[in-house]
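Task 17 of the worksheet. Students: predict the tertiary structure of the chain below and write it out as structure tokens. Keep your answer in the requested format; marks are given for formatting as well as content.
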Amino acid sequence: MRVGVIVFPGSNCDHDAYHVASHVLGLQTDFIWHKETRLPPVDLVIIPGGFSYGDYLRAGAVARFSPIMTRVVRFAREGGLVLGICNGFQVLCECGLLPGALLRNDSVRFACKWMTVRTENTRSPFTHGLKQGRILRIPIAHGEGNYFASDADLEALEDSGRVAFRYCSPQGEITREANPNGSANNIAGILNAAGNVLGMMPHPERAAEPALGSADGALIFQSVTATRTWSAQGGTGRVHEFQRNA
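Model answer:
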């Protein structure tokens, strides 16, 4: 598998994502500058965390218009795998690959701490290596992580099982106290209709080695790399397939 990590002005988790993909998992990994107009031959695109373009206007709003995002959107719509982490999740919502938006935390304060999230979906390339209900210990670091969507979009996400992760107590209970930012339905991560795009606010790349305090985040990356063939019924009725490169 070959991985591409998008780099925007203001990205600050690009090297973390690169480290996990290249040094922890041993995958061929390339940085891709935001001004590029084409993608190299990659299987997975990671849009990392940070403050792309200084979060001017709102988080992810300017990055959505970077030249490379035109290619990333096309790549995703053709079935390519895309993982957006924190600011990357915000960018994916801004460019329309995922529904909803990330608002200011309800505390109106930046939140940076370890959280526990519960695995809600095990039918995507990013989660098929996890067990239903598996609790992961992964940190957050965001000021705008309050997931918001219309009632119709939330109903569609819930009914189709596209909520990938929810904030929970260490025992796996979905409570208001376990919600660090006010996200609707304690949502920490969601999938697109086809299942090949995941956006999540917690940082799995910061919890991918025991020395960091948790290696739970590595399970998400390992799930993707273990994917050989995957298909899901897309929203357009097409069957999308992913074939891992030999």
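Marker's comment: Residues 231-246 have pLDDT under 50 and may be disordered. The radius of gyration is 16 Å.
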